[in-house]
Amino acid sequence: EVMALTGAVFLVNSLTALIGTGTAYYSLGAEFTKFYWTWWIANGLGLLMVTPLIVLWANSWRCLAAVPWKRNAEAIGMILFSVVVAWSEFGWKGEISVIELAPFWLPVFLIWAALRFGSLLTVTVLAAFSFIAIGCTSAGLGSFPMGGADATLRLLSMQTYLGVMGLTGLILAAAMVQQRESLALLHAVVAGTSDAMYVKDEQDRCLLINSAAAR
After folding, report:
1. For helices 151-192 and 32-60, what crossing angle results, to 10°?
2. SS in 3 state form for 26-91?
3. Torsion-angle region of residue 118: left (phi > 0), alpha (psi -120 to 50) or beta?
4. Where does the pLDDT of residue 22 fall: very low under 50, low under 70, confident under 90, or very high at 90 and above?
5. Neighbours of 88 (CB within 10 A)
6. Among 165, 158, 113, 107, which residue's Cα sits nearest to residue 135?
7. CA 119, CA 177: separation in Å to the nearest integer?
8. In this predicted model, what pLDDT tens digit does every residue of 93-134 receive, in sequence order?
9. What's the rounded Cα separation, in Å, for the pair 191 and 181?
10. What distance in Å separates the CA atoms of residue 27 and residue 198, rounded to the nearest whole number?
């Protein structure tokens, strides 16, 4: 599904960017190549970020009430912590004396979200990063190292960075969901059979056992 979404974004966005750039080229005399890539990257990031956010929240928000409060507290704490780090990187003008924050800190939070909470929190954290990073870069805040002194190139570099990071987070979250579903199926098969089934490791430790084997 993630790769299908990515392919759809590439195809749809390539067409819309071509139409928009062609219109700007013939009506305003805009530079075709630069305008095309500006349009393509910006709209592509929007499609890649906003679509999973809307779909996942529309299908999952009712289930949040059943999540244990400790897990919700961890999720809220992680989001707040990640927002502080993102603001320190993209919105802070001063120097941080303890350690210099850099964009490579942000994927840590996406990995954390993907491994612990799945796709929903991954796209939520990514949306928060995108809002802070693009907003601060557009306003000339922070010191994002990619793109040099040119504001337009810096913004395009930021959007490309967020797109690659977001796609990586979505793939990792999807892989974890698939693994959890496979494990849940295995446990359901083992628990649902009347035959005795168990799994042991090389140290003779029991890793999995059903009620029939226990009896």
Report:
1. 30
2. HHHCCCHHHHHHHHHHHHHHHHHHHHHHHHHHHHHHHHHHHCCHHHHHHHHHHHHHHHHHHHHHHC
3. left
4. confident
5. 15
6. 158
7. 8
8. 555 444 455 567 788 888 888 888 888 888 888 888 888 877
9. 15
10. 72
